Amino acid sequence: AQSVTQLDSHVSVSEGTPVLLRCNYSSSYSPSLFWYVQHPNKGLQLLLKYTSAATLVKGINGFEAEFKKSETSFHLTKPSAHMSDAAEYFCVVSDGSSASKIIFGSGTRLSIRP
Amino acid sequence: GAGVSQSPSNKVTEKGKDVELRCDPISGHTALYWYRQSLGQGLEFLIYFQGNSAPDKSGLPSDRFSAERTGGSVSTLTIQRTQQEDSAVYLCASSPLVGDRGYPSTDTQYFGPGTRLTVL
Question: By CB count within 10 A, which of A16, A59, A67, B41 is most buried?
Fold first, then answer.
């Protein structure tokens, strides 16, 4: 069975400082992993994905994530936070077997302090 | 171009009433997903339509929930005899093509803004 855990429900950082949103997963197969962002009153937007190629994945808006199999982690990072990064972030795991096996984490709300 | 649209954006109903939620996918997208997002929770898969194939209904929580997709385009999610625990944001997503694993891969999903359902 698959699962995904986002370790922090809320993260607050100052503008210009690094961002770290943590995600751990469990999967019986080689998973695909994704990060989505949801701005208020907007639809979810794909930030980046890992599908067994390079373990360091670069996404949009300066975000990146590193797949660490030994730690079963896929943490999202950004070197310098911007006010526009304030949103809800979802980590997603998929084992590729069916549409119903795409599992979303519970989300991390990122707040940016001026 | 136009993205995925959902209507209504907000729906307040009384317990026991039926509700219909509508999703207009991006034109030409063959796959359509419904998800439910409860407060503080991740997205819960409900149902998936792919072309003319039988839908994957494995995520529907009870027989009060049903969905249809007419003409391979617009989809309606119906909840009968609503209960307070049905209160949530219902999200629709569409996808333009079938991936190499036989279903659209997650990165091609385009999400609508959702319908916020409140059952009093």
Answer: A67
Q: Which of A7-21, B19-33, B68-82, B96-110 has the lowest mean pLDDT?
A: B96-110
Closest Cα of chain B to A100: distance in Å?
6
Closest to A100 (Cα-Cα) out of B80, B100, B58, B109: B58
Residue A61, helix vs strand vs coil: helix
Is-contact A66 A49, C-beta < 8 A? Answer: no
CB contacts of A96 in chain B (<8 Å) are 101
A53: Cβ contacts below 8 Å, ≥ 6 apart: none
pLDDT at A36: 93
> Which residues on chain A are in Cβ contact (under 8 Å) with B93?
43-44
Q: Do strands B88-95 and B75-79 pair parallel, antiparallel, or not at all (unpaired)?
A: unpaired
Q: Which two tokens stand for residue A104?
A: 């979303």
For residue B103, the 8-state DSSP code is S
In whole angstroms, give the CA distance from residue B87 to residue B84. 6
Is B106 within 8 Å of A32 when comparing Cβ atoms? Answer: yes
